[in-house]
């Protein structure tokens, strides 16, 4: 005997799907899904189920016997009469959608994405008990009213057991998967009490079902099915408590015998079955089980009389049926009695009946053993191993809410907001356009006759299109006369993504074409896209298109970006990989206010691309600035000058509601550095951001932050780190400030060590300027560092004598000599090095300043034979050379000479 699976039926759209059997008789199968419909099925073969729309989505349902309870997009638990489905009041209210619902023994329990659980006695609203303690969205719950027990699993990775009568937490178990939103959850845990006595509590964990003893809350045992290759996502007890069913993320289903604690024979899942989201047993037939998957499909499993499966449980059941144990006992007793009678005839006689029985029993035993061995030796058909790949992300518009909603944002950016309204009954709709700055254009109200579901807005144009048609409509905002123009794409091309910048209009099509137009309709370029489109964004004359570069693996998808820069009739395209953490998806794509490409994933990490470095930098983790793990930020815009991210806080969801209009928040950029609660990490974050981005007063801020880090290292008695910081930044001006600070604080040794870095830093700065000058030609500058005399490594003739060792008396006289005012007068008459060519300040030249601030111009370079500090015979030549640069070194104080 085994459980056979039926064919899958389409029930709802992709997403979490729930189901239940009506109590007592199980007459109907009721399902709910993300399309907002409730469907009543008489059986799995019902070709015309009754459908009722309750809202934009229905998260979960429960049945009281006379009424149907449902959680909708209104953040309430609503009651409906059954089967008429008329509204019958509101039972509970939350600040986010209710994600799980359970009715048992006159009690109704509901968990929400706002982390709260409410328990209500009876079927009327009021006097509910609130259970608080979770720090993530509640994924699943169950209650046993006889003992006032409630078990819940949430996105914080905890399973909690409560006494819902006293609102007291009895037990908390860690180790479950963590998730920040119900929408992205695939492992629900699904705790369930044994329905008869409540002595056991089972929940899904990885590839096992953990069973707890409710008397002491210790682990009793674990159920394992060797035929399962994926993690369990949910589980459910049968009404009599004798069986337990569990579904996996791979679409597999296990059914366990709770008495034998073994897996029963179950037919393999259909090839089109995906992650199981819900299980429900038939309330009147213990041999029927219903299930739903993440793609909105419905199926059932029924116990059949055929021997199937390849597990040990199926083999043992077949052996028990073939070799009936009771018959063996009866025959054995009869044979024993007969033998005793036969033996009683006498030792000398031979019993003919005894010989017959022995021979017949031996033949029967051999035949039965051969039959049983044929069952065990029959090779089972090997199950086909199906590799579950990561779901490939479909195309989406940045800063837009998903399609299929009655009221949704087509785009929300730093220019304005475009909202689409649709009437589900008549199919008519409209589009409202609002501008943040009324001087750009007045608000627009457009009838949506063409069923536009894609849109993009800039200061110059509004673009509207539909994924189901080939028509593109553009409204030029700054044009005079006829502002609107439209066109139809050729060869039945469909629009996948659109973008409007201040100078360009771009359309990505289903034929893997990127069509570029001017704002007023001139066709500029047409490019080929290397893969399926994911998203499209733009800024002035630059476009960024993200596409799938290859098929996804089991844990992640592989995306690449195509950067298109247009200058007149010339065009340049660059391809670069898009870094995404495994298990994450792209949620936003755009540009900063200065034109730097940026992106965000669904876990809140925002990254910025620097063309000079050819790398992506994580600049903010929005989840670190959220008070709850169930909250998300809907990114709208990014500003490098102000160092902020404009976003909308979505409590318990991933997208904002259109009514009431949410408030726009400003998040400060904060790179995900280690130990950010320390002052050192905060200064390092400020230094990194000011060097990576185009910040107002960035150079000044860099120096201030660097000298603060230097001072912090000095106060922490870590002088090597202070010297390393100045050396790594490589700015002579910063070196002078550091020497002044170290001298003022009495750190003479550090001051002397820093002075030794001056020639090296000047060489680095000169090479940086040369690199900027030669960068356009692609020639890299070579950094030539001044050589330090080393007697052990010099093989040629020495041009200068060895440096003299000065005692304390000579050092004092040298100090008085260096502080003499006549020294500056003689230094002014010496020939100076020529001023290098001026360079243009760029973002990459962080501390690069013209040396005109330090050295005057107008002198010609001396001949190559002239003595330098390296080949001079005067041991004090190096001292004079440093005086020429305006720095005088002393053991107690430092003076800056201004020329």
UniProtKB/TrEMBL annotation:
<feature type="domain" description="WDHD1/CFT4 helical bundle">
    <location>
        <begin position="693"/>
        <end position="757"/>
    </location>
</feature>
<dbReference type="GO" id="GO:0003682">
    <property type="term" value="F:chromatin binding"/>
</dbReference>
<dbReference type="InterPro" id="IPR022100">
    <property type="entry name" value="WDHD1/CFT4_beta-prop_2nd"/>
</dbReference>
<dbReference type="GO" id="GO:0006281">
    <property type="term" value="P:DNA repair"/>
</dbReference>
<dbReference type="GO" id="GO:0042023">
    <property type="term" value="P:DNA endoreduplication"/>
</dbReference>
<feature type="domain" description="WDHD1 first WD40">
    <location>
        <begin position="9"/>
        <end position="300"/>
    </location>
</feature>
<dbReference type="InterPro" id="IPR048591">
    <property type="entry name" value="WDHD1/CFT4_hel"/>
</dbReference>
<dbReference type="GO" id="GO:0043596">
    <property type="term" value="C:nuclear replication fork"/>
</dbReference>
<feature type="domain" description="WDHD1/CFT4 second beta-propeller">
    <location>
        <begin position="395"/>
        <end position="673"/>
    </location>
</feature>
<feature type="repeat" description="WD">
    <location>
        <begin position="131"/>
        <end position="172"/>
    </location>
</feature>
<dbReference type="InterPro" id="IPR036322">
    <property type="entry name" value="WD40_repeat_dom_sf"/>
</dbReference>
<dbReference type="InterPro" id="IPR057646">
    <property type="entry name" value="WD40_WDHD1_1st"/>
</dbReference>
<dbReference type="Pfam" id="PF12341">
    <property type="entry name" value="Mcl1_mid"/>
</dbReference>
<dbReference type="Pfam" id="PF24817">
    <property type="entry name" value="WD40_WDHD1_1st"/>
</dbReference>
<keyword id="KW-0677">Repeat</keyword>
<dbReference type="InterPro" id="IPR001680">
    <property type="entry name" value="WD40_rpt"/>
</dbReference>
<dbReference type="GO" id="GO:0035185">
    <property type="term" value="P:preblastoderm mitotic cell cycle"/>
</dbReference>
<dbReference type="InterPro" id="IPR019775">
    <property type="entry name" value="WD40_repeat_CS"/>
</dbReference>
<keyword id="KW-0539">Nucleus</keyword>
<keyword id="KW-0853">WD repeat</keyword>
<dbReference type="InterPro" id="IPR015943">
    <property type="entry name" value="WD40/YVTN_repeat-like_dom_sf"/>
</dbReference>
<protein>
    <submittedName>
        <fullName>Uncharacterized protein</fullName>
    </submittedName>
</protein>
<dbReference type="Pfam" id="PF20946">
    <property type="entry name" value="Ctf4_C"/>
</dbReference>
């Amino acid at each position: 005997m085994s459980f056979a699976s039926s064919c899958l039926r389409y029930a709802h759209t992709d997403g979490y799907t729930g189901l239940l059997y009506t109590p007592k008789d199980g007459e109907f199968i009721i399902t709910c899904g993300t399309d907002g419909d409730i469907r009543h099925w008489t059986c799995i073969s019902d070709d015309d189920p009754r459908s009722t729309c309750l809202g934009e989505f229905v998260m979960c349902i429960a049945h009281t016997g006379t009424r149907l309870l449902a959680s909708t997009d209104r953040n309430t638990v609503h009651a409906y009469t059954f089967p008429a489905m008329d509204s019958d009041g509101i039972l509970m209210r939350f600040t986010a959608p209710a994600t799980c619902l359970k009715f048992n023994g006159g009690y109704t329990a509901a968990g929400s994405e706002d982390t709260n659980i409410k328990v209500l006695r009876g079927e009327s609203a009021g006097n509910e008990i609130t259970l608080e303690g979770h720090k993530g969205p509640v994924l699943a719950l169950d209650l046993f009213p006889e003992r006032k027990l409630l078990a819940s699993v949430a996105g914080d990775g905890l399973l909690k057991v409560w006494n819902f009568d006293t609102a007291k937490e009895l037990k908390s178990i860690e180790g479950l998967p963590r998730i920040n939103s119900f929408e992205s959850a695939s492992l629900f845990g699904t705790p369930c009490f044994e329905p008869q006595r409540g002595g056991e509590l089972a929940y899904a964990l990885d590839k096992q079902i953990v069973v707890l003893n409710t008397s002491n809350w210790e682990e009793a045992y674990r159920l394992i099915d060797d035929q399962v290759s994926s993690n369990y996502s949910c589980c459910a007890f049968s009404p009599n408590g004798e069986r337990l069913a569990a579904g996996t993320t791979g679409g597999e289903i296990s059914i366990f015998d709770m008495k034998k604690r073994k897996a029963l024979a179950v037919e393999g899942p259909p090839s089109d079955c995906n992650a199981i989201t819900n299980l429900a047993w038939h309330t009147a037939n213990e041999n029927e089980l219903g299930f739903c998957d993440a793609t909105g499909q419905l199926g059932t499993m029924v116990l059949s009389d055929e021997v199937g499966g390849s597990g040990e449980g199926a083999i043992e059941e077949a052996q028990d049926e073939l070799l009936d144990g009771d018959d063996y006992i009866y025959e054995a007793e009869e044979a024993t009695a007969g033998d005793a009678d036969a033996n009683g005839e006498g030792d000398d006689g031979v019993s003919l009946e005894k010989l017959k029985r022995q021979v017949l029993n031996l033949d029967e035993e051999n035949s039965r053993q051969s039959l049983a061995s044929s069952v065990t030796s029959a090779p089972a058909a090997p199950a086909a191993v199906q590799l579950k790949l990561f779901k490939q992300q479909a195309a989406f518009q940045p800063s837009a809410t998903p399609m299929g909603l009655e009221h949704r944002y087509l785009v929300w950016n730093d220019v304005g907001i475009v909202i689409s309204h649709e009437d589900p009954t008549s199919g008519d709709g409209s589009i409202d356009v609002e501008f943040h700055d009324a001087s750009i254009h007045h608000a627009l109200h457009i009838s949506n006759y063409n069923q536009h579901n894609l849109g993009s807005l800039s200061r110059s144009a509004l673009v509207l299109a539909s994924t189901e048609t080939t028509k593109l409509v553009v409204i030029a905002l700054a044009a005079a006369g006829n502002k609107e123009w439209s066109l139809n794409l050729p060869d039945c091309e469909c629009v996948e993504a659109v973008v409007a910048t201040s100078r360009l209009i771009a359309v990505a099509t289903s034929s893997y074409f990127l069509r570029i137009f001017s704002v007023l309709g001139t066709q500029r370029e047409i490019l080929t896209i290397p893969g399926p489109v994911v998203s499209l964004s733009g800024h002035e004359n630059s476009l960024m298109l993200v596409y799938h570069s290859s098929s996804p693996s089991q844990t992640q998808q592989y995306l690449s970006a195509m950067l298109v820069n247009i200058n007149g009739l010339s065009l340049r395209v660059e391809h670069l990989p898009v870094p995404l953490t495994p298990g994450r998806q792209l949620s936003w794509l755009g540009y900063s206010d200065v034109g730097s490409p940026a992106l965000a994933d669904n876990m809140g990490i925002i990254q910025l691309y620097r063309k000079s470095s050819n790398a992506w930098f994580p600049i903010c983790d929005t989840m670190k600035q959220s008070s709850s793990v169930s909250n998300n930020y809907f990114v709208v815009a990014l500003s490098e000058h102000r160092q902020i991210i404009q976003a909308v806080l979505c409590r318990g969801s991933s997208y904002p509601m259109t009514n009431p209009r949410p408030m726009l928040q400003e998040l400060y950029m904060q790179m995900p550095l280690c130990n950010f609660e320390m002052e050192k990490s905060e200064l390092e974050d400020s230094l990194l951001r000011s060097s990576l981005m185009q910040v107002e007063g960035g150079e000044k801020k860099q120096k201030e932050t660097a000298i603060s880090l230097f001072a912090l290292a000095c106060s922490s008695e870590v002088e090597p780190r202070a010297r390393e910081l100045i050396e790594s930044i490589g700015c002579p001006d910063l070196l002078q400030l550091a020497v002044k600070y170290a001298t003022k604080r009495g750190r003479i040794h550090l001051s002397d060590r820093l002075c030794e870095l001056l020639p090296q830093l000047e060489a680095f700065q000169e090479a940086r300027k040369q690199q900027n000058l030669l960068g356009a030609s692609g020639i890299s500058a070579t950094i030539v560092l001044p050589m330090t005399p080393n007697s052990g490594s010099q093989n040629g003739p020495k041009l200068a004598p060895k440096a003299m060792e000065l005692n304390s008396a000579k050092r004092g006289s040298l100090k008085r000599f260096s502080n003499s005012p006549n020294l500056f007068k003689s230094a002014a008459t010496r020939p100076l090095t020529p001023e290098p060519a001026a360079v243009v300040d760029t973002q990459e030249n962080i501390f690069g300043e013209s040396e005109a601030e330090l050295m005057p111009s107008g002198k010609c370079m001396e001949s190559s034979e002239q003595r330098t500090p390296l080949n001079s015979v005067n041991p004090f030549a190096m001292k004079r050379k440093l005086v020429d640069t305006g720095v005088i070194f002393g053991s107690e104080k430092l003076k800056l000479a201004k020329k």
